[in-house]
Amino acid sequence: MMSAIDSAFRQARAEGRAALIPYITAGFPDLAALPGLVAALAEGGADLIEIGIPFSDPLADGPVLQKAASAALARGIRIRDILQSVKGVSGQTVPLLFLTYINPILRYGFQDFCRDSQVAGIQGLIIPDLPWREGQSLRHMAHAQKLAVIPLVAPTSTDAHLMEIRRARGFVYGVSVTGVTGARTRVDHGVSLLAARVKSQVNLPVAIGFGIATPDQARQVGQVADGVIVGSALVDAIAAQPDKAEAVAFRFVRNMKEALTNIATKA
Amino acid sequence: MSTTEVPNRQGRFGPFGGQYVPETLIPALDELELAYRAARKDPHFRRELHELLHEYVGRPTPLRLAPRMSEALKVEVFLKREDLNHTGAHKINNTLGQVLLAQKMGKTRIIAETGAGQHGVATATAAALFGLKAEIYMGLEDVGRQSLNVYRMKLLGARVHAVESGTRTLKDATNEAIRDWVTNVRDTFYVIGSVVGPHPYPMMVRDFQSVIGIEARRQMLKVAGALPSHIVACVGGGSNSMGIFYPFRRDPVRFIGVEAAGEGLHTGRHAASIQAAEPGILHGSLSYLLQDDDGQVHPAHSISAGLDYPGVGPEHAYYHHTGRAQYRSITDQEALSAFHQLAEWEGIIPALESAHAIAWVIKAREELGAQNARVLINLSGRGDKDVDQVFALETKSGHRATSHPGEGSDA
Ligand SMILES: Cc1ncc(COP(=O)(O)O)c(C=O)c1O
Questions:
Q1: What pLDDT sits at residue B409?
Q2: Whose CA is nearest to atom 5 of ligand 1?
Q3: CA B241 to ligand 1 centroid distance, Å
Q4: Segment B204-214 mean pLDDT
């Protein structure tokens, strides 16, 4: 059976372009903004959307996403409220994924979290501090709820790791650099090698994230990968004009989408 | 070796431990584990480390009866003198081991986190000894509170990065050190300061610190003619305590780990993660963690910066879980009075961390006396680093912490 994630990648491919996957932090600038932001991103051309659940100790994140999470936590954001808010929008939009760290999920309860995420209309989970080898029991419970747990691949990952993730669902999240999230001035030259390695071993779409900030970078990455993930640059743009968050998000995504679509027509 | 040795191949101590880190670091952890397992069997590596501990650190450290304390409490008390190590605490046992391993692995860059600065100083010292460059992450709060240790690290040639994120203390410094490691993983060795972090760190740090217990076991048999009935040590991340406990694990010896109760367990301002006993994952392993209902990490509090950490090593969680060790807690006030008391009784000014272990023995003296106990305390460090802080505290409050056993005790 084809999942909503599979269909989103399939459709992008049918249009001859990479899928665009923006990231936003739930509760930033505030939780009330979430439904409007999701709608604006989808309207601007997002194919899937990652929603970050803030964590106090986000060790895979750079300064921009750290600050967004701290700000959301300082306002007292709760996981239950995020689930509630997501539930209100998930029916009318593109597939949604949660990105969070393992401790909030552990504390909520693996089974309860998977069930409540599913009920809220979430399609998959990305957990940067849950490497594949530690993920078995969560994957088991997530799969029972038709949730994908997205495997990550880093430039340092071994072929043995690529073999293991052949059994994964959804897509492969390729981490473009050794490092944390945050805008970078250029695309690491290792990205095409990383994407090619994954494609040669794993029969899933590969989306590349970490550091992609501009339409031009998105275009470069879109030439070698099935998806382009953009987080810090978008959140930074929202942070600069929090009162115009929706308009900023819409414009940001539309520019990225145009860059991805243009290579398609050129190619 | 018995079949119940922990950790297992997956780095698990029962349900605890593991490797909860970004995928980027997994190959580095595998490389480290391989290198470490080879080194610990390599006679050359062992000899080199032994020589350093002997000739550079000054090991073995003494173990001796504390005569006046024993008399006052009517309990036989022995002290293992880790305070007499070079740099003033047990931390150097571990940093020399790890930096020697880093050098063997061809890593050119050393990073570490530090809270009060003790582990930072010990890492900077070991790096200087090997001519390596150390970069130390320290929370901005701690940089302010512990400016002398910042200067010490600089004297030793290290670079100190003040961390401004989160609560600006040890946990945030650790996050930042991990972020650095993720970024520079190919040439960098991360020297973790306690029995925490992803596998193989809790095992490796325990092994390097086990020199304390190996010596102490031999010394007790020689000095007292018998093993201790109780071993008492303070628990921050848990390295000095695990280091002294581990070699006695198959002996009929009771282990008491003393956590920091800060302003009192009921106030929520404490660092007693085992007392709170909430399972959680921070900095790469599953253990007990101070946190709220959503799994957001709760800041710890203790008068002693070395115990001011919201987590604890996974092997301690396992010892608590199986009942192999008992965990108790001591407040800031109780630790302060023990700080004075040991100075007066024995002419030894203990680190505030170690004063927690002393304070528990004072508090439990009746129970210990009734059992005819023979107590071994791990004096993990010396109090020179804390003298300014205690002086300032007492000047401000206008009186010194009282030190007479019995007073202010709510045992
Ligand atoms: C003297 C001393 N004792 C104890 C500790 C606590 O650490 P651990 O529990 O790892 O021994 C520290 C940490 O800085 C310390 O400096």
A1: 41
A2: B306
A3: 9
A4: 98
How large is the angle between the packed helices B26-41 and B201-209, nearest 10 degrees? 30
Report the distance separating Cα A220 and Cα A224, nearest Å.
7
The model's confidence at residue B90, banded by pLDDT at 50, 70 and 90, is very high
Which positions in chain B touch A197 (Cβ < 8 Å)? none
Annotated catalytic residue within B33, B113, B135, B141: B113
**Complex ipTM over 0.90:** yes
Query: What residues of B are in contact with residue A158 (Cβ under 8 Å)?
Result: 27
Question: Which pLDDT belongs to residue B378?
Answer: 99
Cβ–Cβ under 8 Å, residues B278 and A100: no
Given the candidates 2.130.10.10, 3.40.50.450, 3.10.20.90, 3.20.20.70, the CATH classification of the domain at A4-262 is 3.20.20.70
Nearest to B296 by CA among A31, A81, A69, A150: A69
**What distance in Å separates the CA atoms of residue B13 and residue A265, rounded to the nearest whole number?**
56
Alpha-carbon gap, residue B398 to B387, rounded angstroms: 16
Rounded-to-integer distance, Cα B357 and Cα B337, Å: 12
Closest residue by CA, ligand 1 atom 15: B306
- Domain-by-domain residue ranges, chain A? 4-262
Summarised one tens digit per residue, pLDDT across range B348-397 is 999 999 999 999 999 999 999 999 999 999 999 999 999 999 999 999 98
Contact (CB<8Å) A156/B175:
no
The rounded radius of gyration (Å) of the Cα atoms in chain B is 20
The confidence score (pLDDT) of residue A110 equals: 98
